[in-house]
Design brief:
Blueprint (H helix, E strand, L loop, with lengths): L1 H30 L4 H13 L2 E5 L6 H11 E2 L2 E5 L6 H5 E6 L4 E6 L6 E5 L6 H13 L1 E4 L2 E4 L5 E6 L12 H4 L2 E6 L5 H12 L10 E2 H12 L5 H15 L13 E3 L3 H17 L7 H12 L4 E2 L1 H5 L4 H11 L4
Parallel strand pairs: 1-9, 1-10, 2-11, 3-6, 6-9
Antiparallel strand pairs: 4-5, 7-8, 12-13
Amino acid sequence: MAESVDIRELNERIERQSALVTNLVTGMGQVIVGQKHLIESLLIGLLSDGHILLEGVPGLAKTMAIKTLAQLVDSKFSRIQFTPDLLPADVIGTMIYSQKDERFLVEQGPVFANFVLADEINRAPAKVQSALLEAMQERQVTIGKQTHQLPRPFLVLATQNPIEQEGTYPLPEAQVDRFMLKVVIDYPKLEEEKQIIRQNISGQAQTVRPIMSCDEIVKAREVVRQVYLDEKIEQYIADIVFCTRYPDKYGLKEIQDYIEFGASPRASINLALAARAYAFIKRRGYVIPEDVRAVAHDVLRHRIGLSYEAEANNVTSEEIVSRVINKVEVP
């Protein structure tokens, strides 16, 4: 009985915080037409303190969506355009000698911001990509002998174009794993496309003003952490992740040869965090299996290593995740 009272109280707290979600969705909707899944994914990343990798062909408002979200929060935003000649110092900063002070001073790079847009992240070589690893995982940057803490909230939102091969460097598994979600964006629907045309040829640019502070985001995250996650849901999450590693134990022997390596423990953690944030967005104080299923593709698609056999048979990680979700028993 005490537990049900707690859930009721939590539901009330979430209802009070729900204005934040409504305001962000409304604000994004003023600029972005359609793309409901993209907006939801950005909110999940923001509320779960997780980084997001957006993949889609050019012109699908990936960069615009990220900039709009940053503008809605009263925060510091920086954009890094990744190119093959970029250096690690261009991202994290460097030591500069000051003749006036007769010593080296730290010149902070664009990574020192609340929202960092890493545009076309797969265009920079591994040395630059690895410069982001410490920032993404530890929320800190080491320049020279000094370690500097990054501001809170800190969110890396990266974009990549899947169709271009020239001048691109595939992201290493270690870096891809640090992204909480990999969101694949599709073309807009026909009606949405017409609305996009009307909106853009009218010449009236939508102005976006900050509607909340960073402190409000941090407070909302604390409420998200309190969303109730039952032991059965924990077991369900663990089963999904283990099924990607040992599919034969779950009656999926036919996909075993397609998987080089399964999802890492980060997948389990992020699946739980993303499901909690999704429940919060849906104004619920507890996680249900549908929440886990809703975020599973975005959390797992970039964490499953495909074998040569899978590539030869045109089997994608998307299909493997779908097979796993359909096979694992729902509590």
